[in-house]
Amino acid sequence: MERVFIIGTGLIGASTGLALRAAGFGGRIDGWDTSQLEMASAVQMGAIDGRAASRENALELARLADVIVLAVPVLAIKDWMQQLAPVLRSGQLVTDVGSTKLEIVELARELFPGDSTAVFLPGHPMAGKESGGALLAEGGLFDGAMWLFTPITLEMTAMEREWRGWIGCFGSRMLDMDATRHDEMCAWVSHLPQMLSTALSALLEERFGDAPEIAAIGGRALRETTRLGASPYSMWRDVAMTNSGPVADTLLALEQRLQHVRENLRTPELRDEFTLANRFRQRR
User: Fold this and answer.
1) Cα atoms found within 13 Å of the Cα of residue 238, Cβ hemisphere only
2) Phi/psi of residue 124, nearest 5 degrees
3) pLDDT tens, residue by residue, 31-67
4) 244-263 and 269-282 helices, crossing angle to 10°
5) How far is C-alpha 204 from the chain's CA centre?
6) Which domains are assigned to the chain?
């Protein structure tokens, strides 16, 4: 692997470039982003060596790369897959960092069937921050994180093995999953906590606004439960649109659980709820 091209030089894309450098990658890293500011920041911090001058130039740089990393929201990933498939060649690897995988896998099977095409490896690093942008990127962002893959084929090319090797050098653990299972599990462990924090933060803002008592009384518990409420809609729109079924299922289950708690505030059932919750936390 001598050349990497990163499409999307925000938090995850720029962190990928920094992680490659920190791990000892000596090849060239180019990047593209719709934001000139993000690209300039990524260049300045050393996450990428050069930047594409236009979308057309980005396709040219993609043709030269050994590995193309799609570090943009899910709908943009699908759009780039459509653009890249006709111009790439056998031996290249395309991978992504999208938070949902089923729609990406289905499209990858259609656009990258193998043989004379580039190989597509769907991926999802379970790492990030409540805010995005290249300025928040870190070379150690993936250290200790789980990097999920939902492969579309059982065969592993030499380039895929090398890419997985670099991810291991980032300090990441890796796990292969079925795409449907991935989206279901992430709905529970990632997407639901985000929606819960967003709803709670919005409720508090609507009810209390900038009331000084909130800052005076609210402590660590409030900060922790509303931290994800700082995440912008732009980061989560595509997750909601491409994983709406599983996310809706988790929200319904939570609504029913909250109703159960509300109806049992004065009964021993509330103690049982705390017992189950404590057991879950003790396992982790």
Assistant:
1) 18
2) -160, 100
3) 999 999 999 999 999 999 999 999 999 999 999 999 9
4) 130
5) 27
6) 3-177 (3.40.50.720), 181-282 (1.10.3660.10)
